[in-house]
Design goal:
The structure is a homodimer. Chain A is of the alpha/beta class. The first copy, chain A, has 2 domains: 114 residues, Rossmann fold (3-Layer(aba) Sandwich); 145 residues, Rossmann fold (3-Layer(aba) Sandwich), CATH 3.40.50. In chain A, the strands form 2 sheets. In chain A, strands 2-1-3-4 form a 4-stranded parallel sheet, sandwiched between helices. The first copy, chain A, has a 4-stranded parallel sheet with strand order 6-5-7-8. In chain A, strand 5, helix 7 and strand 6 form a beta-alpha-beta unit. In chain A, helix 7 packs across helix 10 and helix 8 packs across helix 9. The first copy, chain A, is elongated. At the A-B interface, helix 1, helix 4, helix 5, helix 6 and helix 7 of A face helix 1, helix 4, helix 5, helix 6 and helix 7 of B.
Amino acid sequence: MHKKRTAFFVSDRTGITAENLGHSLLSQFEGIEFKRVRLPFLDLPEKARDAVVQINEASLADGQRPLVFSTLILPAVRNIIEQSDALILDLFEMFIVPLEAELGQHSSHAIGRSHAAGMNYNARMDAVNYALSHDDGGISRELHRADIVLVGVSRCGKTPTSLYLALQFGIYAANYPLVPEDFSGSDIPQAIKPLLNKLYGLTIRAERLQQIRTERAPNSRYASLENCQLEVKQAENLMRQFSIPYLDVTTMSVEEIATTILHQTGIKH
Amino acid sequence: MHKKRTAFFVSDRTGITAENLGHSLLSQFEGIEFKRVRLPFLDLPEKARDAVVQINEASLADGQRPLVFSTLILPAVRNIIEQSDALILDLFEMFIVPLEAELGQHSSHAIGRSHAAGMNYNARMDAVNYALSHDDGGISRELHRADIVLVGVSRCGKTPTSLYLALQFGIYAANYPLVPEDFSGSDIPQAIKPLLNKLYGLTIRAERLQQIRTERAPNSRYASLENCQLEVKQAENLMRQFSIPYLDVTTMSVEEIATTILHQTGIKH
């Protein structure tokens, strides 16, 4: 039987937290098709009423009540959403009550506070600019400011990882591609040799690399399996020879790669 | 009284969801200082036992039991963490039980499933590469492939927003800086004129722009308040004249800017 449900992610802010948790939870239920709808910035009663209309319409259309993952904080908005014809999974309510009891303090029930807790905007913006100007071997006099320098063969995922480290964690991440010329000698490229203790390698299975490279340069020697196998093998040899820690990212998401690197190295900015 | 508590974010994956929700919740309690520790990739009982040691040490050191925000899925790991001396806020448990009842199906209790639900890695990587090659007016024959083209004065936040749209949502976002030369005529820059319906403006308060630019180029005309005021005013005039939707990002995080743009424009890739 083919079942379909609508899942709403509602928030008075971006809704990203509700959506991420919702995705994790829904992925535990196989065989059910979910239509996913994010309703962010519900910070006024009239917006909440519009949302209720939309939720109730989905309920009618599906013939089953929708799931609503909520991180709403404002009571006036939450009270309205609670009247919709849906199963409400209220992340805030579920946790704020035990937290108030544990901490012996009432919560402020005000939105717009989570900024103070996170990385500040300037620091992340500086880190993004740093990552951009030190992408793909963009080596400058400022390379010594790097918190980490990612190395690996072309198209193994260094750039998105550097950017994610910058955007999410404010880490100064440079990256440097290992190209066939680097494997001809028995030394590490001169440009990054002084930074040996900041190097971190990404590696990837040759078959996956072939697939990624083929999308950009079909039928090239660069994308051929034989060449990918050779490059990956030589890069891994180099990393082992110089005791550079490295990670096989073949089956990992950018988030997982970045978090694993932080976890293994303990780097902070 | 100065209180201090340790908050742990534990997960068998990256812990980012647990940390984001935890930050939101903790920001509701003012006057309490939280030490925040992420413990990702707890996917084996021995790792869970190490985590319990760390949690219990914090409990002793603080003289108060820590808070543990958990998205753990594996029962064998969760059972161990539950024995620690902490208030466990189990995101998974709290929601999976009502979801199982609602959906009439047991959850798989297996990790590593959320990939299937999210954007795929290739699509996001392609979008990041697109954003990089179309950053800061990097105009090419492929500009027509953009889902959106962000415009605004230098340093208003176009680049991090483009990258976030790419990394998080797989959106092809180009960006094009509006520079003083663009304001001399009464027309929109030729390079972006054919893309008028894809343009989206970012604007910023002049005082904030002055602050950002001063960090890069102190005492320059470029960073002066007078020049920032003029550029911002002219850019906003241009956007209004050509009916380009725009957003004041002065007090917004990158996540909020990106989500607001998606919400307002409805763009998808």
